[in-house]
Specification:
heterodimer, A: alpha/beta, Rossmann fold, five-stranded parallel beta sheet, two-stranded antiparallel ribbon, 10 helices, globular, B: alpha/beta, 2 domains, seven-stranded mixed beta sheet, 14 strands, 40% helix
Chain lengths: 281, 317
């Protein structure tokens, strides 16, 4: 299936609008990482994944996606709503009382599209590997995707999971790391440097590829290449370079917009840079 | 006092191993994971029968819990196996977020719980696990008392939908429950009817309670003995019915007195029928190396300690 890059770009513009409006609406949340990963989410849900928006938890014969860095919930929620998992107007309830759109994603309140709770970091890769193992046991040929943050790699459990996936030849898994180089206390290189990640993941026995997470053409290419690398006895890792805050000039390239909501003027300035393509919620 | 005898002694972990094999035969969705303790958890028979349904995780318990949570997506029923310490305290956050808050059907199976682990000492003798697991919303907490009950419990939790913590142990202890019992989660077992004091016991302390009951009978105290194998959800009705008759309670458990069965029973009594209660439990301390039987005496968990607690609580009525 060839991708309609222009259409994907239109969708991602709307999702970015949703993200900044959601965090503005509740004066909290994480816009930076959400904006940086919007192109990945768009390409995944509107091109790469075989999925069913009527949503079945077991996802048999569907591709599954898990978000490990749960704090970028705004982009996850907007993508799911825009894909048809739940009404777009529900995005207005984000982080508010009695909402299914909790600060961090959870299946606890029955939000369609969410299969695991995440927020406490470092757990998503293990969960995704477990789901991939079950797919193999069930003879289900579809794939499992998982996205992690780069700061999250400081959690030890990630490396337990990395070792496991290679040892058990979990080759129906496509993991990705959002390499925006930022975390709450500053640049990852200052807080806790991650070193040569390509060499590290390869040393752990993974098949590693790189892509520009803010170039839709390259995201589509990267996801297709990753898919081609599956079923070859190795887990697949995409190192995805992004800019935190991508698409809103004053939010880009700084950890300062990791977990801060825009005020009214900032919202207006952000929305002026993002075309409304599908209609705001 | 109803007479309980035994002809055979076995460890409760072997009951788990036998139950896991049986659960695996009954349901092809049952899978097992282990963190480098296959022999200790008695998982060999399951692995031999179902090698493709077993996952060796290595010494990586956090990953094991996450894997298990993920495996439920697609319909598997994962049983994780490691020591109680590494099944709870070490992986509390993984259990909380990936399993319980996510509503996943994972069975956390924990051996070598409590003092009776023996010689390895306090690093491995967790006495806080029941409390930790009790506090997790939606978690079912089960602590069976002998081989047969552990086997039956293992089969029962495979048929139950939801996260479960199943706690068992290392030492060889008498087998005194029915080999063909139907294990009902959340349902207390009336071990002996009596009228003077309710002894409510779990795990290895049930056999101690039976021995205590015999001694108390000689002393003229007619003890009612109730086995609570399911700490959560608690059979409140059975407890209240018993205390309505006896007017006082001794709780007995191989656990810290803080946060265990005793506290659960106390909470039920406070809300419904306040009554004198004595705890037979570890007095907020770590354990130490030694022979299991010696440790049970030193830390106040023997039949004699139950006798003394019963005598004391009867006087408080």
């Amino acid at each position: 299936m060839s991708a309609d890059i222009n259409n994907l770009a239109r969708i991602s513009s709307q999702i970015r609008r949703d993200v900044v409006r959601m965090v503005h609406g509740c004066s909290s949340g994480h816009p930076g990482g959400s904006l940086g990963c919007t192109d990945y989410f768009t390409a995944l849900y509107f091109h790469a994944l075989k999925h069913d928006t009527s949503f079945h938890m077991d996802g048999k014969n569907e591709d599954l996606f898990f978000l490990s860095q749960g704090h970028i919930s705004p982009v996850f929620y907007s993508t799911l709503a825009r894909a048809g998992y739940f009404p777009v107007k529900e995005l207005a309830t984000f982080r508010k009382i009695n909402s299914r759109l909790q600060g961090h994603p959870t299946p606890h309140d029955g939000l369609p599209g969410i299969r695991i709770a995440s927020g406490s970091l470092g757990q998503g890769l293990s969960v995704a590997i477990g789901a991939a193992q079950t797919k193999k046991l069930n003879g289900d040929k579809q794939l499992v995707y998982v996205l992690m943050g780069d700061g999250e790699l400081q959690e030890g459990q990630v490396w337990e999971a990395a070792m496991y996936a290679a040892h058990h030849k979990v080759d129906n898994l496509i993991a990705a790391i959002d390499l925006n180089g930022q975390q709450i206390d500053g640049p990852t290189e200052k807080v806790m440097s991650l070193g040569n990640l390509k060499a590290k993941w390869e040393a752990f026995g993974w098949d590693v590829l790189e892509m520009n997470g803010n170039d839709m053409n390259d995201v589509v290419r990267g996801l297709e290449l990753a898919k081609a690398k599956t079923t070859k006895s190795k887990p697949v890792m995409i190192l995805m370079q992004t800019d935190m805050g991508y698409g809103v000039d004053f939010m880009m390239g700084s950890h300062k917009w990791h977990g801060v909501a825009p005020n009214d003027e900032q919202l207006a300035a952000a929305l002026a840079q993002l075309e409304e393509t599908l209609g705001d919620y | 006092m109803k007479k309980y005898t035994f002809t055979e002694q076995k460890d409760t972990r072997s009951g788990f191993g036998a139950g896991l094999l049986e659960a695996g035969k009954r349901n092809e969705n049952v899978v097992a994971l282990c963190a480098d303790l296959i022999g200790s958890l008695k998982m060999d028979a399951f692995i031999k029968e179902f090698p493709e349904r077993f996952y060796q995780v290595g010494i990586a318990e956090a990953n094991m819990i996450g894997l298990a949570a993920g495996m439920t997506i697609g319909g598997k029923i994962p049983f994780t196996g490691t020591f109680a310490n590494f099944s709870t305290g070490r992986v509390y956050d993984q259990i909380r977020q990936s399993v319980a808050y996510s509503g996943k059907n994972v069975k956390i199976c924990a051996s070598h719980a409590g003092l009776t682990l023996g010689e390895d000492g306090a690093t491995h003798q967790i006495l806080e696990d029941l409390g930790l697991m009790k506090m997790v919303p939606g978690m079912t907490v089960i602590n069976p008392c002998d081989y047969n009950q552990t086997k039956a419990a293992t089969i029962a939790i495979a048929e139950y939908e939801g996260p479960v913590y199943l706690r068992f142990g290392r030492p060889v202890v008498p087998i005194f429950t029915d080999p063909d019992q139907k294990f009902e989660i959340g349902k207390a077992w009336m071990v002996n009817e009596g009228k003077d004091v309710s002894i409510i016991a779990t795990g290895h302390l049930v056999w101690e309670a039976i021995q205590a009951g015999e001694k108390l009978a000689e002393l003229g105290i007619d003890a009612e003995i109730i086995n609570i194998h399911t700490i959560k959800p608690l059979d409140e009705e059975a407890i209240l019915k018993s205390v309505a008759k006896t007017g006082c309670v001794v709780t007995a458990e191989e656990h810290n007195r803080l946060g265990g069965l005793g506290d659960s029973v106390a909470q039920v009594l406070i809300k419904n029928r306040p009554a004198p209660q004595e705890y037979v439990a570890v007095d907020d301390s770590f354990g130490e190396s030694g022979k299991p039987a010696d440790l049970m005496v030193k830390y106040g968990l023997s039949a004699n300690d139950i006798v003394k607690a019963a005598q004391k609580v009867v006087k408080r009525k």
